[in-house]
Design brief:
The complex is a heterodimer of chains A (311) and B (477). Chain A is of the alpha/beta class and 311 residues long. Chain A contains ten helices and six strands, in the order ααααβααβαβαβββαα. The C terminus of chain B is likely disordered. Classes of the chains: A alpha/beta (311), B alpha/beta (477).
Chain lengths: 311, 477
């Protein structure tokens, strides 16, 4: 057993030495609980967007900024950073906490990801379809897993769907409008009403007649070929939910094709994409689509063919 | 959809001392991806003709000799090989003291008739500074770097400064600093501007007409001007007899300075300038003082792309904006000229906004067409929310209702920044067939601006020139 006095002596010596001077570190380490971190979290100034959804966040105590001349520099830097942030919807300049993203950033990311997943697996609001007077048919897809695994099933109407379309729809219209959830039911929920009504108004103004519109559950883009085969319209316009991403899970596309039939190649299709509140406004897209359809009818071609004919 | 469209643009700069013309070719292209709605932008500008620098023809001290200016322009059009009818856009800029000379406004009207069916803009000093900064390359430089760039355009009568960062205008300022504020003839003073007279009185300088020139006094006067420029750039300026209008309003420190205008030519190319002896005025002295200023030496200096021709180049290549490609216009109504802008700001409370429209239109009418002579005005929808189909129709119906309530029989002209013009225009067109409609988007204007809207191009967009018609001095009214 060591002498108690000796222990105290050694302890005091050690403490004194430690106080004298800190050993110089060879590598600069960031100490996560250091009160005055030498790094600065870029984008501290960025206003944190409220994370959507139901998760409630308790406010975090704000860290004091170091009261040195660096403050001004930080503000200037963040001014430049803001310019960069404006140019992209990517998650840049969001700061960090140690090696991880900040909690808010992380939750926002998780929320957006979850929204994307929900959009793929969700169902379109039935009352919306009712209001717009769209009846529903199915593709050969029976459940969502099959939809993901067998894209070819999403490209054909089911037998009863085909029959229903034959019975209920006017044949050989100039324009056949169809709607499908595709990969985002949310896109349909959010944008369909405005795009659809605006498109109809624009076609009416141009004096272009339309057929009997309907909704296709779990369809893929090329399902328009099957519809073209059955109803033989001049132009099919398919309003379909786009594959969701982390920026928007509710983006819609309008696919247009001149006389699509089974076997139509992709280059003959034409698309107006990015229709959502953060992209092309839905009502404006609808108004614009009318003039695109007019052009397709005028030239009797769509997609690459149309570009060629236009010269 | 795929190709490039080319339009011809004219820039005419009628300054206090010199007049220049440039003709340029603007190329327009769809810059949006194939799967997006088209977005037409000016992708290239190429100057195809530059006139020599002419003395601005004046009649006496106060008025521009219009007949001579018109001759000059038609001669230069011939030299360039263009007909007035070929010009689709562009701007006439009446700058500096010329703008305050008595017949500037009349001039604008006459030129718009003679120089082609193109758009005519006139400059107040703010717009002039902005246009010069675009022509000199200061604006482009600010977009490329993260530096704050000031362009100081020193012409005959005024120095117009515009400050840019990241391509955003931070502010403008105008000073009575220019080459022709003191003029000589055969070694004696032949003209001094009122602002100089005031300074002369303060400092007891003898600058009476007919007095022989004193180098010392000129240097002192140029020194005063240099101080005004420095004070303006550093934000330390308060009251000064040389300040016109507002003191500088930007808060950022300026990193880079550039000079353009006639005096700038003498700042950067000293030899060139002295040889010519073109300017019999204080310009060369001022250039010398500015060049050797230790205070100005504290800023980073950059040589501009253009000095004397910065404004005319800016006018010819940078004043035209292109509307969105999805718009609704009645072609018979276009072109429109000198349309005042009344701004309606949406508050976010839809019902309230719809109610407020009534009052707003009544006021706009009182302001822009009090005698009901059929003077059109444009409504600018600021902060317009993202509207759905039904709200768009409601807005259209409301506008139509109010236009008929007040018996407004001029075209309904709507401008907005948000991409909603086609849907609103279409709704109006279908539901109110009797109305003449011009509804354009992706254009940003402000209350009190004036706009010119040209006829649609093949790519279905319309060129728009936004201008500020503030003539300084007020004596021309």
């Amino acid at each position: 057993m060591m002498d108690r006095q000796l222990v105290e002596e050694v302890t005091r010596m050690v403490v004194e030495r430690m106080g004298e001077k800190k050993p110089e570190a060879r590598a600069r380490l960031w100490i996560h609980n250091d009160k005055a971190p030498s790094y600065k979290a870029v984008g501290q100034e960025r206003e944190e967007e409220e994370v959507g959804g139901k998760a409630k966040l308790s406010p975090f105590p704000k860290t004091e900024k170091s009261p040195s001349s660096r403050t001004e520099e930080t503000e200037e830097d963040s001014g430049d950073l803001k310019e960069l942030i404006k140019k992209t919807s990517a998650r840049i300049g969001v700061g960090r906490a140690g090696v991880r993203p900040k909690t808010k950033t992380w939750l926002k990311f998780r929320y957006d990801h979850a929204a994307a997943v929900d959009a793929v697996f969700g169902q379109v609001d039935g009352s919306l379809l009712e209001t717009l007077d769209l009846f529903t048919v199915r593709t050969k897809v029976t459940d969502q897993d099959t939809y993901i695994r067998r894209p070819d099933y999403g490209r054909r109407l089911s037998e009863e769907g085909e029959e229903k379309v034959r019975d209920a729809c006017r044949k050989r219209p100039s324009v056949q409008i169809i709607v499908s959830d595709g990969l985002s039911s949310k896109a349909v929920d959010e944008n369909l009403e405005d795009v659809y009504l605006s498109l109809n108004q624009s076609l009416e103004a141009l004096g272009i007649e339309t057929g009997t519109p309907f909704y296709i559950d779990k369809g893929r883009v090329a399902v328009m070929d099957h519809v073209g085969e059955i109803l033989e319209p001049d132009v099919v316009c398919l309003l379909v939910g786009e594959r969701p991403g982390l920026v928007s899970a509710e983006s819609m596309s309008a696919y247009l094709c001149y006389r699509p039939r089974i076997g139509t190649i992709e280059s003959e299709r034409q698309v107006v994409s990015n229709i959502h509140r953060g992209g092309t406004p839905p009502v404006e897209a609808g108004a614009y689509l009318g003039s695109v359809i007019e052009k397709i009818l005028d030239y009797g071609a769509s997609g690459v063919e149309l570009v060629k004919k236009e010269g | 959809m795929g190709g490039t469209e080319v339009i011809l643009s004219a820039g005419i700069d009628i300054g206090t001392s010199t007049t220049k013309i440039v003709i340029s070719r603007l190329s327009l292209r769809n810059t949006a991806g194939q799967t997006h709605m088209p977005r037409i932008e000016i992708t290239d500008t190429e100057v195809i003709y530059e006139s020599p620098i002419f003395r601005t023809p004046l009649k006496g001290d106060t008025s521009i000799d219009m007949a001579q200016v018109e001759d000059l322009i038609s001669r230069e059009y011939k030299n360039a090989g263009v007909e007035p009818g070929d010009i689709q856009t562009g701007a006439v800029i009446i700058t500096g003291e010329t703008a305050t000379k008595s017949n500037a406004r009349e001039m604008i009207d006459r030129l718009s008739a003679h120089a082609g069916e193109f758009l005519v803009a006139t400059a107040g000093p703010d717009l002039e500074g902005i246009i010069a900064a675009k022509g000199s390359g200061a604006y482009a430089l600010s977009r490329k770097t993260n530096k704050t760039v000031a362009n100081i355009d020193i012409g005959g009568g005024t120095a117009n400064t515009a400050v840019y960062k990241h391509g955003n205008l931070l502010g403008t300022c105008t000073l009575h600093v220019g080459g022709k504020l003191v003029e000589f003839e055969n070694g004696t003073v032949s003209y001094t501007a009122p602002a100089v007279d005031q300074l002369a009185e303060e400092h007891n300088w003898n600058l009476e007409k007919g007095e022989s020139i004193s180098r010392e006094i000129l240097k002192e006067l140029a020194g005063c001007m240099e101080k005004a420029v420095t004070g303006m750039l550093k934000g330390t300026m308060k009251e000064s007899p040389l300040l016109i209008g507002q003191p500088p309003e930007w808060k950022e420190d300026i990193d880079i300075i550039m000079f353009s205008g006639g005096v700038a030519e003498c700042i950067y190319n000293e030899e060139n300038c002295k040889e010519k002896g073109m300017y019999d005025d204080i310009g060369t002295t001022l250039a010398e003082v500015l060049r050797n200023s230790s205070e100005l030496g504290g800023f980073e200096w950059r040589v501009p792309d253009e000095t004397v021709r910065a404004t005319v180049l800016g006018a010819g290549t940078q004043t035209t904006e292109i509307s969105g490609s999805t718009i609704q216009v009645d072609e018979g109504t276009l072109p429109l000229r000198n349309i005042p802008v009344a701004e309606f700001r949406f508050s976010g409370e839809w019902k309230e906004d719809m109610d407020r429209l009534d009052n707003f239109l009544e006021q706009a009418l009182t302001l822009y067409d009090p005698e009901r002579e059929g003077n059109a005005f444009a409504v600018y929808f600021d902060d317009i929310p993202l509207l759905g189909f039904k709200t768009i129709q409601e807005l259209g119906d409301r506008l139509a209702e109010l236009y008929s309530k007040y018996h407004i029989n001029t075209p309904l002209i709507i401008v907005m920044e948000r991409d909603l013009a086609k849907s609103l225009g279409q709704s109006l067109h279908i539901r109110h067939k009797e109305m003449e409609i011009v509804c354009i988007d992706q254009i940003r204007v402000e209350n009190g601006d004036y706009i010119d809207v040209s006829t649609p191009l093949n790519s279905e967009v319309v060129p728009v020139v936004i201008k500020t018609l503030t003539f300084h001095g007020g004596e021309e009214e």
